[in-house]
Amino acid sequence: MGTTKKSATSQSYEKHPYQLSTDELTSHLGVNVEQGLSRQQVSDLRSKCGENKLEGEGGVKWYAVLFKQISNAMILVLILALALSYGVSDYIEGGVITAVVIGNVIIGFVQEFQAEKKMDSLRALSSPTATVLRNGNLESIPSIEVVPGDIIVIKTGDTVPADIRIFESMNLECDEKILTGEAVPVAKSPDADFSGKSELEIGVGDRINMAYSSSTVTKGRGRGICVFTGMHTEIGKIARSMQGKTRKPNRSMSRKKHGKLQPAKGAALRTWDAIGKFLGLTEGTPLQIKLSKLAYTLFGCAILLAIIVFAVHKFDVTSEVAIYAISTGIAIIPESLIAVLTITFVTGMTQMRKRRVLTRKLSALEALGGITNICSDKTGTLTQGLMTVRKAWVPGVGIYTVSNSEDPSNPKQGQISVGPAKSREQMESEKIARQEHFDKQRSAAALKFDLPPKPSEKSTTKTETYDEKFADAETMEYDEMVPELESMLRTAALCNLATVRLNEQEGKWQTTGDPTEIALQVFAYRFDKGKRILEKDDGWTQISEYPFDSTVKRMSVIYRSPENGNIIVFVKGAVERIIDLCDDVGIGSERKQMTDAAKGLIYEQMTMLAEQGLRVLALASKTWPGDFCEGDNIPRDHVECNLTLLGLVGLYDPPRLETKDAVRECTNAGIKVHMLTGDHPGTATAIGKEVGIIPRDFSTLSKDVADSLVKTAAQFDAMTDAEIDAMPELPLVIARCAPHTKTRMIEALHRRKAYAAMTGDGVNDGPSLQAADVGIAMGMAGSDVAKGASDIVLTDDNFASIVNAIEEGRRMFDNIQKFVLHLLTSNVGEVVLLIFGLGFRDNNNLSVFPLSPLQILWINMLTSGPPAFGLGLEKAVYNIMDRPPHDTKRGVFSLQIITDMIVYGLIMGTLTLLTFVIIVYGVGNGDLGHECNQTYSESCDLVFRARAAVFALLTWTILISAWEIKSIRRSMFRLDPHSKSRFPFFHDVYANKFLFYAVAIGAVIVFPCVYIPGFNDKVFKQKPITWEWALSVGGLIVFVMGMETWKLCKRNFGWFAKDEEEPNKGGRGDLSLRQGFFSFARTLSRTTSFAKTSTRGSRNEA
Question: pTM of the prediction?
Answer without folding.
Answer: 0.77
